[in-house]
């Protein structure tokens, strides 16, 4: 090697690489993703505010046919809805920064109280639905990949399409007719029976999540009752996402089974079933983690119809009630909260995906 070549090969001062490759890229990526939450939520809040106001002031919309003209004008002035729209908008932004979503018109409750009271029920239902989606979608997706282009694969693909395409309320009604009305093995509606709810309500420190509260009672019968009431709503909403997971797992497993390292394992005599379960399974899960954030939004949207169908008193059920009452203040608060939850969930999913797969950072 010449001296001239040695000079060229020598690294320049101050240009040394980090000892941990991609470390700075990860934190920069996460910071950018977190900061993107702010404009996303701001745009959603703005759209919701002006869409709600496009029908007029909330007092007139909710109470227009039940109050006289002077009473209506008094309520509008007291709530500040007679001021210019931009003034109301700026004041609403300030209220949101203070976690104040106003008061409902139909029952005069703080919207934050409604969110905390019924938000736990929706969170619990989403948890049950995700459990069902994972239990059904991932194993069946692996099975479809194992039997690819054969009869079981074709059947499972049709099943996935039906899960995703069937309206949630229709699936819920069918399940109620079969298992609650016909076979009488599961409850028709509600989060718990009257006796179990009374025991939960008398707990000193309730979380609002019935499963946790039922365990806190120390009564196994109450726990069983809560779980039985959760089966039909959880399965109804979970099948919606299970169809997406099934197709994703199948597609990514088939793609992973064609990679070089899987071909190398296959050449060593590893069985096809073991290749699916061990070698190709984990890489195929990365796209599911990425898509999970979008599925949270799908679950929250489906929760409105599921909770209404099964009288599961969560945010979706309350949202339907407030829409019927034209209580746009309550509707606005619930929609904004759901938007924030979806944005934060997508950020957490991005964090998990970036940690699992370094390629996501770049």
Question: Briefly, what is this?
Answer:
The protein is mainly alpha-helical and 362 residues long.
How many beta strands in the DSSP annotation? Answer: 0
Please outline the major beta sheet.
none
Radius of gyration: 26 Å
Estimate nothing, just give the exact number of structural domains: 2
What is the fold-level CATH name, i.e. the topology of the largest domain? Answer: MetI-like fold
Description:
- With 362 residues, the chain is mainly α.
- It has 17 helices and no strands.
- The chain has helices at 3-9, 23-35, 37-53, 58-63, 69-79, 85-97, 111-146, 151-165, 168-182, 194-201, 210-217, 220-257, 260-267, 272-279, 281-310, 315-324, 328-356.
- The chain starts with a helix and ends in a 6-residue tail after the last helix.
- Mean pLDDT is 82; it is low at 1-12 and 14-23.
Write the layout of secondary structure elements.
Layout: H1 3-9, H2 23-35, H3 37-53, H4 58-63, H5 69-79, H6 85-97, H7 111-146, H8 151-165, H9 168-182, H10 194-201, H11 210-217, H12 220-257, H13 260-267, H14 272-279, H15 281-310, H16 315-324, H17 328-356
Helix pairs in contact: 2-17, 3-17, 7-8, 7-12, 7-15, 7-17, 8-12, 9-12, 9-15, 10-12, 11-12, 12-15, 15-16, 15-17, 16-17
Write out key terms for the chains shown.
single chain, 362 residues, mainly alpha, MetI-like fold, 2 domains, 17 helices, 0% strand, globular
């Amino acid at each position: 090697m010449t001296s001239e070549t040695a000079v060229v090969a020598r690294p320049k001062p101050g240009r040394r690489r980090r000892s941990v490759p991609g470390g700075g890229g990860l934190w920069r990526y996460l910071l950018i993703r977190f900061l993107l939450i702010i404009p996303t939520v701001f745009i959603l809040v703005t759209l919701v505010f002006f869409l709600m106001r496009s029908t007029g002031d909330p007092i007139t919309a909710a109470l227009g046919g039940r109050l006289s003209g002077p009473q209506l004008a008094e309520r509008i002035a007291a709530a500040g809805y007679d001021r210019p729209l931009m003034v109301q908008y700026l004041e609403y932004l300030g209220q949101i920064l203070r976690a104040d979503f106003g008061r409902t018109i139909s029952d005069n409750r703080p919207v934050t109280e409604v969110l905390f009271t019924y938000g736990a029920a929706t969170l619990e239902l989403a948890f049950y639905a995700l459990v069902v989606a994972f239990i059904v979608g991932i194993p069946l997706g692996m099975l479809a990949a194992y039997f690819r282009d054969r009869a079981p694969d074709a059947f499972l693909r049709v099943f996935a399409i039906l899960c995703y395409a069937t309206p949630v309320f229709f699936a819920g009604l069918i399940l109620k007719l079969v298992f609650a009305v016909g076979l009488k093995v599961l409850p028709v509606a509600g989060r718990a029976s009257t006796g179990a709810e009374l025991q939960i309500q008398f707990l000193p420190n309730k979380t609002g999540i019935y499963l946790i509260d039922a365990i806190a009672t120390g009564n196994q019968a109450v726990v069983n009752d809560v779980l039985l009431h959760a089966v039909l709503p959880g399965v109804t909403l979970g099948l919606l996402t299970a169809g997406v997971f099934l197709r994703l797992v199948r597609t990514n497993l088939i793609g992973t089974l064609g990679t070089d390292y899987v071909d190398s394992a296959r050449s060593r005599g590893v069985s096809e079933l073991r290749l699916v379960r061990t070698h190709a399974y984990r890489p195929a899960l990365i796209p599911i983690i990425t898509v999970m954030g979008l599925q949270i939004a799908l679950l929250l949207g489906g929760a409105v119809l599921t909770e209404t169908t099964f009288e599961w008193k969560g945010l979706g059920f309350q949202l339907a009630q407030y829409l019927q009452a034209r209580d746009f203040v309550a509707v606005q608060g619930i929609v904004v909260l759901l938007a924030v939850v979806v944005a934060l969930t997508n950020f957490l999913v991005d964090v998990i995906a970036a940690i699992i797969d370094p390629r996501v950072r770049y």
